[in-house]
Amino acid sequence: MVETTERSEARNTRRQRVLKGAKIVFNHSSSVIDCAVRDLSATGAKLVCSDQMAVPAEFSLVTPMDNEMRKARVIWRRDGLIGVEFVGEPRRAPPRKW
């Protein structure tokens, strides 16, 4: 895992400030951590999570409000925040309640 600071992060698209509830899903969908999306772009997001060290390097990010799921990879971690880049295209979240 590469850890950088937010300022040195190279972004291709502009992030929009948002506040959305989300789920970090991993371990073949058997493990879930609640989080909030603070900034969002087509290529990545900034997440706030109470237990950032429990978040694995790669996971699926589910935003129930948008009914969307995206594979994500951690780029940086700092002060309760996690910067992720999206890997692949978004898809519809499965009909499952976490």
CATH superfamily membership: predicted glycosyltransferase like domains
CATH topology: Thrombin, subunit H
Domain module tally? 1
CATH architectural label: Beta Barrel
Question: Order of helices and strands, N to C?
Answer: EEEEEE
Q: What does this entry look like structurally?
A:
The structure is a single chain. With 98 residues, the chain is mainly beta. The protein has a single domain (6-90), classed as predicted glycosyltransferase like domains (Thrombin, subunit H). The chain is built from no helices and 6 strands. Strands 1-2-3-6-5-4 form a 6-stranded antiparallel beta barrel. A hairpin with a 4-residue loop joins strand 4 (58-63) and strand 5 (68-78). The N and C termini lie far apart (27 Å).
Short recap of the structure:
The chain has strands at residues 16-26, 31-40, 44-48, 58-63, 68-78, 81-92.
List keywords for this structure.
98 residues, mainly beta, Thrombin, subunit H, six-stranded antiparallel β-barrel, 6 strands, 56% strand, globular, disordered N terminus
How would the blueprint of this fold be written?
Blueprint lengths: L15 E11 L4 E10 L3 E5 L9 E6 L4 E11 L2 E12 L6
Antiparallel strand pairs: 1-2, 1-4, 2-3, 3-6, 4-5, 5-6
